Amino acid sequence: MNIPYPVLLKRTEDPAKWLPIVTSVAAVVAAFVVSGIILWVTGANPFTVYSYFYRASFGSWGAFSDVIVKATPLLLIGLGCSLAFRMRLWNIGAEGQFFIGAFMASAVVMVPLVNLDTTPRWAIVSLMGLLGMLGGALYAFIPGILKAKLNINEIIITLMLNYIAVLWNNYWIFGKWSEAGFQMTKTFPKSAWLPRLADYAKDVPAFSGLTLHAGILFGLIASIIVYIIVYRSKWGYKITLIGDNPRAARYAGINIATNTILVFMVSGALAGLAGMTEVSGVVHRLQERISNSYGFSGVIVAWLAKLNPFAVIVVSILFGALLVASREIQPSGISFLIQGITLFLVISSDVLLKYEIKWVRPTQQETAQ
Amino acid sequence: MQDIVLRFPGVLANDHVNFSLYPGEIHALLGENGAGKSTLMNVLTGLYKPQSGEIRIHGKKVSFNSPKDAIANGIGMIHQHFMLVENQTVTENILIGLDTPRFALNLKKYDQEVSDLADQFDIHIDPTAKIWQLSVGEQQRVEILKILYRGANILILDEPTAVLAPQEIDELIETLKEMAAKGKSIAFISHKLTEVKQVADKLTVLRRGRVTAERVDLKDFTRESLASLMVGREVIFNLHKCVQDHGREVMRLEDVSAVNNKNLPALRNVDLSLHEGEILGIAGVAGNGQSELVEVITGLRECTGKIWMDGKDIANKPPSFAISHGLAHIPEDRIGVGSAPNLSLTSNVIMKRYDKEPISHKWQLDYLAADELTDNLKTEYDIQAPSVKTAARKLSGGNLQKLILARELSSAPHLIVAMQPTRGLDVGAIEGVQQLLLRQRELGCAILLVSEDLDEILDLSDRIAVMYEGHVVGVVCSDDFDITKIGLMMTGTLPQDLPETVKPELHAEGASSRFDQVLEAVRDYEGPPQPDPTIQVESTEHPQSVTPEESEQAEPPTPLEDPDAGLSEKERVLRKILGENYDRRGEE
């Protein structure tokens, strides 16, 4: 490696344990600094912007509850992606699996599959959750089996399936399930809503107006389950082994095809569950815009969290905050700017983990020439 | 290079090492894995900077910051693992990274340049061929050309023979001699004693970062004395192999055929059988179906026919089937197949037993139990690693192989399929691996040993099956091992067609290993003909068939032949080529 600057990159074999955390945090801080400079160049005072930012996302319980609401689908999708990425399966079809999950959950209400007036709320909501997961899993089964049996590139397939899923949803909300010609279904009855904090405002006045719904519990439980799968189970070992060296895994007698399909389906199920929490916990109907590109942000979340299921929680909250803040700040693109710069810097900061950077005194260089 | 000192954290890799190289000589750098050979050469090519010491080229002090600086000073290194672009042609690969051609690529012109350069050194290569179409030996020639094209006068080869088949080694050696004759200086890193004796003029031996022999003449040393310089103790070349009766049949192949990755027939109607307590050696030039044979047995490749193991047909079953019936597989590609490089020793050890007690309980994996097991194996097999959490990629070749052996042998297998188990390992490690295999044989294990090292096959096997183009040409028993016959069979001659007259009289003259024989053949080729006409015919047509019989056991205590003749022969040729300008000392 010969770069025209007086630095030498030396490969380090053993980065210290704390280093990844430090570099990630430093990268986020650096992202805010860089964005601040851009804001300053455009004429805004970055400190004012950031304080708005903070107030918009963490300034009050109401704001924070909104952040968690946004973080919920990111968390579920990020967990699914982290599992798939661990096996080097590039599932970027979470967006599509999210929509199919939302569709299946809505079907419980729209068909309807059960009597909405007599069935208890917990049963309806559970059924919606299960069908949402099933929908995501089945939708992810398609790229899974194509990859496993025919070795077809999963990136292309999952990406294309995203469009199909959106159009499939459109077919239903524009047509059969359309309410009075609007591109949305009717509002779900209360019995199909995930419980929200605001529902308990009668008992706890402080909860009034808080939109936080039970979906976040699914997310937290899922992250514990994913943690156990990855670090404590035989299946997690197999996934990690296949991810590190599929040829070694095959040699060790592990069935790669089966595991490819399974991991895809679990990843899809989590994205489908995210779709269900959105329709049942937030918008309470199926409509065109239910996703803030959650499926794609989830990919980024998984990556920034370095595939660690608990780090996914932290990162998804940060991204949720950025999403909430983008509502408050004009132009709203600033949030996405920060998102982009963060991703860029965190990924670049990997170089600090892999290499030691040494400054070379110019004199040494001269003697070389 | 003088007084080179290079310290890595915790290791003194080079401790005041001197190394000098003169024009037109082949200087071998010998040492075990981890002795500091590659480190020293990486200093020379600018990959590492020494903490002290200096490098002089033609008397001028230099300091390199990168390989680019080194190549600008005419120093180029050919690494063990090639750095070539598979889908591009030879010429394109040679041009990669150069400043000219800048934009437009007049490939025809450069094809011509490349083939002219190749002709100069008698290297046979088609400049328009794509890399993937080339054999490993040919790819290595491309690497050599790449360095030569950049104007290198000093070539460093890092264990160049580790990846080559026997006859490719012979060709490489000829090329190296040719280049030395044209005035290039060659540093030849190796830990194989026989080939060092065969190729080099001068020798420097490293042990644990120190020089134990500096710039000595090879003729003063025997294999044994070289080995003890390298290892620091006596190395026993005679493996003790007890005679034992074979037990019942463990595996039988019936009419097995398979295709290779390019969908061409690679195994044709193979029948083999293997018994308890027996080592069946598979001899053959690389690429004659050995890999495919191993893969069909281990369930990694589909085939037709039947493979019986303990009465069950394991053909076309998933790999886990044979594993659960007691098959251990020591794969050829340790890094690519045999291990998960980024995972810990523990994760690598439990690869085949992660679903057995006590490592697992139902769906759970008990990492504590796994670490404990790994720690025990680490002690038992003497695997040098900081801890069981160390990533496998940080192990040296020998230790990685020990890790794989620990995993495979500790599962008490009935059948071991070992492919190239000692390739690329140093003398001490090879001995250890071979002892482990013999120990398993005594325990009643059936072992299928595939190796391109004929000496190894002869030393270890009870029977040898020779493969050629996917056929098993013939099977010979240990009381009938005849290297010439085996050599001829490796080139496709059927046992019944073997001439009776090929019995070599060479070993009567005191020849030892087959490498020395090849050396002799090479010498014959350049110099005056040998008195024995049979041998000469064989040596030109089938280099590997001149190999005499006998493993190391037959080696006489005194150095065979007269290596001096080789040197003076070379000198004579050099004088002829370079005329009066030929000066052995040259300019440093």
* Helicity of chain A, as a percent range: 55-70%
| Biggest interface, CB < 8 A | A-B, 30 and 39 residues
What's the count of strands of chain B? 22
Gross geometry of chain A:
globular
What's the Cα radius of gyration of chain A? 23 Å
CATH class of the domain at 2-231 in chain B: Alpha Beta
Q: What is the global morphology of chain B?
A: globular
Write down the CATH topology of the largest domain in chain A: ABC transporter involved in vitamin B12 uptake, BtuC
Mean pLDDT of chain A: 86
Tell me the number of structural domains of chain A.
2
- Sketch the topology of chain A as an H/E string, one letter per element: EHHHHHHHHHHHHHHEH
Q: Layout of SSEs?
A:
The complex is a heterodimer of chains A (369) and B (588).
Chain A: E1 7-11, H1 19-41, H2 46-58, H3 61-86, H4 94-110, H5 121-150, H6 154-174, H7 215-232, H8 234-244, H9 246-251, H10 256-283, H11 294-304, H12 309-328, H13 333-348, H14 350-354, E2 355-359, H15 362-368
Helix pairs in contact in A: 1-2, 1-13, 2-3, 2-12, 3-7, 3-10, 3-11, 3-12, 4-5, 4-6, 4-10, 4-11, 5-6, 5-10, 7-8, 7-12, 11-12, 12-13
Chain B: E1 2-8, E2 11-17, E3 26-30, H1 37-44, E4 52-57, E5 60-62, H2 67-72, E6 75-78, H3 90-95, H4 107-120, H5 136-149, E7 154-158, H6 166-181, E8 185-190, H7 193-199, E9 202-207, E10 210-217, H8 223-231, E11 249-259, E12 265-275, E13 279-283, H9 290-297, E14 304-309, E15 312-313, H10 319-324, E16 327-330, H11 345-349, E17 360-361, E18 364-365, H12 367-380, H13 397-409, E19 415-419, H14 427-442, E20 446-450, H15 454-460, E21 463-468, E22 471-477, H16 483-490, H17 514-526, H18 533-541, H19 563-578
Parallel strand pairs in B: 3-8, 3-9, 6-7, 7-8, 13-20, 13-21, 16-19, 19-20
Antiparallel strand pairs in B: 1-2, 1-4, 4-5, 9-10, 11-12, 11-14, 14-15, 17-18, 21-22
Helix pairs in contact in B: 7-17, 13-14, 17-18
